[in-house]
């Protein structure tokens, strides 16, 4: 029962990622100008008439206060340069007009996040009653809960900074770590282990590193496209002009070579790990969607799938490491 509960929790974490990607592709990230409420309401409005006339000025001033606090936090951890850039960029204070679709898209995203948080909290409660390796399970579940709170706070900073690229990238990396920790938690309740050669075991670690780098660069590419589309036509965009895209494509090629090598070792050493075959299959879908996105300037409907495939790959690689015994 506990194992099924943790699998459902993992599913909800992935749903949060998908919902966040939909928010991103529809430009709904600023649909709710405040956090955790939306327009200072638990259930957001459906009409601009429900808001005061000066609502844009009001939330702009609120954002300015949050940026000051966030800048102080950044300076406290030694990121003075990032803090100064935030404080000097007055474009961050521009409040977008009310859009009911954007508002409710962002609101639904937050609801899904809240549900995921409740499941993560439930995981902590379940771990307290575990009879086997209780301390380890409690520590892992509490670690995920703390990271969830930090992610929620960081999400509020994403809103406060009007979706500054590097803040959003950190938001994505935290989500990947949450997936990784939840996979480790699932492993604690899994009794059957798969035996794999040390070569595959080491390769799995390498794949995790490559994928994290790929996700970081991919987020930057996405931001460059957004910046371009604010003043240019989608049809005139050319990915080749972006240095980040070249890096993204290079790492993608390295990832393809890596997965092919992993699959060959898995097959010829007669390990036949289903996880490795699943990784190979997912890579095909990831490569196809990536190619279409690059050639046709990021079709909106494919963007969530591309991100989902990448994070599913990440989860499987972590699973390969933690749910295996070396031989």
Task: Provide an overview of this structure.
This protein is mainly alpha-helical and 327 residues long. It has two domains: 191 residues, no CATH class; 136 residues, no CATH class. Helices cover 72% and strands 2% of the residues. It is built from ten helices and two strands, in the order ααααααβααααβ. Strands 1-2 form a two-stranded parallel ribbon. α1 runs antiparallel to α6, α5 packs antiparallel against α6 and α6 packs across α10. The two termini are 30 Å apart. The relative contact order is 0.12.
| Beta-strand content | under 5%
Biggest beta-sheet profile: 2 strands, parallel
State the assembly state of the protein chains: single chain
Shape: globular
- The level of helicity is over 70%
**How many helix segments?**
10
SSE arrangement, N to C: HHHHHHEHHHHE
- The mean pLDDT is 85
* Low-pLDDT residue spans: none
The total count of strands amounts to 2
Q: How far is it from the N-terminal to the C-terminal residue, by CA?
A: 30 Å
Helix- and strand-based class? mainly alpha
What's the helix and strand layout?
Blueprint: H1 2-25, H2 55-76, H3 80-88, H4 100-128, H5 134-160, H6 165-188, E1 194-196, H7 198-229, H8 243-268, H9 274-295, H10 303-322, E2 324-326
Parallel strand pairs: 1-2
Helix pairs in contact: 1-4, 1-6, 1-10, 2-3, 4-5, 5-6, 6-7, 6-10, 7-8, 7-10, 8-9, 9-10
Condensed summary:
This protein is mainly α and 327 residues long. The protein is built from ten helices and two strands.
